[in-house]
Amino acid sequence: xxxxxxxxxxxxxxxxxxxxxxxxxxxxxxxxxxxxxxxxxxxxxxxxxxxxxxxxxxxxxxxxxxxxxxxxxxxxxxxxxxxxxxxxxxxxxxxxxxxxxxxxxxxxxxxxxxxxxxxxxxxxxxxxxxxxxxxxxxxxxxxxxxxxxxxxxxxxxxxxxxxxxxxxxxxxxxxxxxxxxxxxxxxxxxxxxxxxxxxxxxxxxxxxxxxxxxxxxxxxxxxx
Length: 224
Hints:
The protein is an all-alpha fold. The protein has helices spanning 3-16, 21-28, 32-40, 50-57, 61-66, 71-117, 127-157, 163-176, 178-190, 195-223. The protein contains 10 helices and no strands.
């Protein structure tokens, strides 16, 4: 047992409770000189007084002797640290999302406008189309890499992924596919492959229904 360490703990906890040395001495039925002696580390409290000192200072005997916080408080601190770590991980993933969505948006705008402008022109006939489509595909691939790399890292750093995070993955996937779908529709239109329109429209319908299902699921989980 370290008298100086215990003295510092008594001094610190007494001040936290707003007690003077005289008031603490009166509670313990000792002289204020004895309290001063303990706090200076010049002496150790009698063993029989330890429970009363701990009770007066609202701490455990173990904390009084060692300065170590009791288990419940340690758990609360660890929970707080976990929450802070999760917030940092979420912030990093959010940055990845913003960058990925920005790149996907640029790909969709460039590719969408290009495909609409050249809808009645044979695909890949104009050289500028090839260059711009290559640029769009690069943006598309890079956005996927950034988003899913961020998501995988985020999911490995937290204990449980929320349903809303899975919804974000789903929405990003749909959003990033707008430009490729535009290009596919144009190719089908030019080569008169109308039979494939049915399959594409069916896929879109399935995606819409799945979106509604996911939205209701997320909403339901939030209300629980």
